[in-house]
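Narrative summary of target 7.
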Amino acid sequence: MKLFSSINEKAKSSDNTGFGSNPSRYGGRFVNKDGSANVEKRGLSFFSRISWYHTMLKMSGWKFLGILLAFYAGINFIFACLYYLIGIEYLNGVDGTGSEILKFGKAYFFSAQTFTTVGYGHISPNGFLTSALAATEALTGLLCFAIATGLFYGRFSRPVAYIKFSHNAIIAPYKGGKGLMIRMAPYKNTNIIDAHARITVGISVEENGEFVNKFYNLHLEIDHINSLSLSWTLVHKIDEKSPFYGFTKEDFENAEGEIILYVRAFDDLFSATVTTSTSYTFNEIVYGAKFVLMYSENEDDTKTILELDKLDTFTMANVN
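Modeled conformation, tokenized:
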């Protein structure tokens, strides 16, 4: 982060963020846009550093299905090779004539039938090695499908905070002055209640001739709502107690800081607490703007329409 020396001395810093105080030791942003820590861990082997279960639960749906299909095809290919090496003649029902590719294909599909425990009966193992290999594959298939079923259940049953955040934070006119604003909205048919929000800003400041990372908890006009059904705009008024007091548009453009947002809420369907977070670097703050209202009544005034495509929409405005 670029170093910055001008900050409101009345603002009280926080020391319990866990991000460290030496700016020269920290690279890039503190938190990624998806809420994950921008940290690369080293010093242990790859398999010691990764949790496959958490990785499979959190990856995108198409990657998850792609890995399952690739694993299914790959393990059947391995077993088909073993059947082929033992000898096609030890698979009853397989015609020994034809090309080698055709023979391997029959061994592959026998492997698929054994792995899934379908067992059509058209082909059956003959001999000790082939029977032992088929029994091993059947057991492997049962274990693999049990793991896959658990992963599918975990992905569908895991409580998730289905909340989208505006792409930009804005500095907008507010109560005769200006305020930092961030907007969020629920985007699934879930019932999110008892939502709490907390915002922390990190800036490199000069202290006793040295530059250190300083973190400030930003006071929010409203930091807790009973129900998150529509959009929620978090507002931090920039007054004498704010670390942004006296900041100009040029200050936000020339300095590099980061605003980190944490949200905790209760999912009524799962009866579980859900959390999510995101961050905004100073170059993702639009100075002199205001959000466009994203909800209104329907034609016959019987429902409220929440237009999620307007979450990031804002217009320019003058700020003092």
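Residues 168 and 284 are 5 Å apart (CA to CA).
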